[in-house]
Amino acid sequence: MNFRSLGRSGLMVSPLAIGTFNFSNPTTETDSIAIVERAYDAGVNFFDTSNNYNEGQSEIFLGHAIKRLPARHKVVISSKVHFPIDANAGPNEQSNSRVNIIRTCEESLKRLGTDYIDLYQLHRPSFHVPTEETLGAMTDLIRQGKVRYIGCSTHPAWKVVEGIMLSESKGLARYISEQPPYNLLDRRIENELVPACLAYGVGLIPYAPLAQGVLSGRYSDALNFPKDSRAARRGGVYIGRVNEPGIDIGRKLTALAKEAGITPAQLAVLWVKDQPAVTAPIFGPRTMEQLEEVIPVMKMTLSGDLAAACDKLVPPGSAVTNYHNGCTWMKQQLQVGETQVETTTH
After folding, report:
1. Would 242 be classed as within a structural domain?
2. Is residue 88 classed exposed, middle or buried when 0-12, 13-18 and 19+ CB atoms within 10 A define those classes?
3. What is the pLDDT of residue 333?
């Protein structure tokens, strides 16, 4: 296994991270534990979760699974803070304020059943909270031994750089990673975020490499979803990420994958894994079969010809689907032919 350094740090992670968004909804605890054990046996040491995934159940399931592995220090656990855990949360039980960060970390540690979180991430930016306050709280968690490294998720490039500048000028903890939505259907982070991360040594750990299954052939109709698909089960922003232009690109990617002798899902994840600044794409399997299909990608390399063919489908820096529709800071609407994709609050 060729492990990679996560950003400008000494933390080594596998070139694939396992996301746990499906743990408890719909994946059972038994199956979730089996997925973690199988991934670990295959060489994965990086597991991503969040306090708000399925009202904390994802962290609980992951914690139970980690206890069955040889040793806690052999795996990297990343979790997040920002969103409330349930709909009844008060104003101080969300965002990136000091009071919410400290409390949320303590609760996550209990659910995970661990003494520390390897990578603690800001799930979204909080524009009303001073970044110095946020980084100060994260720094204190590191000094207390409850967190090893910090990162951010779905931040605009300028916000990432702002955090780094404050860290360096104030002697505060520094982001080593950013977790954005990134796949062949939405390549807009290549315009500003990717160059910023390359310049400042921030590793990218993108989510949605399969474009919610659109790139693996999961959807054939933008209006009628498979009953067990994420768009059908979750609704909301997930519906807005499925459109006919994206489905059409998915069909073309399937043809490319067939020519290359791999599956569409493998090609979609491989494409993200081998992009500049990317340390490890986050793949969230719902079933063991899905995991088994993607595991071989860790040892694959994207050829120049295949990369060029993908660029012809969706040119660098462009998009045919809006995977930033869960970002309140993304104000610009994405026009796709006759389809207008607008941002919504997540």
Report:
1. yes
2. exposed
3. 54
> Do residues 126 and 134 touch, judged by C-beta distance below 8 A?
yes
Beta-sheet pairing, 282-283 with 4-5: unpaired
Give, in order, the Cα–Cα distances in Å from 158 to each of 61, 116, 133, 183.
35, 29, 18, 21
Whole-number pLDDT of residue 332? 63
Return the CATH number at 176: 3.20.20.100
pLDDT single digits (tens) 213-248: 999 998 888 878 888 788 888 888 888 889 999 999
Nearest-angstrom CA–CA distance, 332 and 334: 6
Number of domains in the chain: 1
Strand extents, DSSP E, the chain = 4-5, 12-13, 17-19, 46-48, 76-81, 117-122, 147-153, 175-179, 203-204, 282-283, 334-336, 339-341
Q: How far is Cα 301 from Cα 278, in angstroms, rounded to an integer?
A: 13
C-alpha 291/C-alpha 32 separation (Å) is: 11
Q: Find the domain containing 125 and state its range.
A: 4-314
Query: Is there a contact between 200 and 161 (Cβ–Cβ < 8 Å)?
Result: yes
Q: Which tens digits make up the pLDDT trace of 9-48? A: 999 999 999 999 999 999 999 999 999 999 999 999 999 9
Closest CA to 142 of 107, 112, 101, 178: 101
Question: Does residue 335 form part of some domain?
Answer: no
In a domain, 332, yes or no: no
The residues of the chain scoring below 70 in pLDDT are 332-346
> Which amino acids are annotated catalytic?
53
189-221: per-residue pLDDT in tens? 999 999 999 999 999 999 999 999 999 998 888
- Domain presence at residue 207: yes
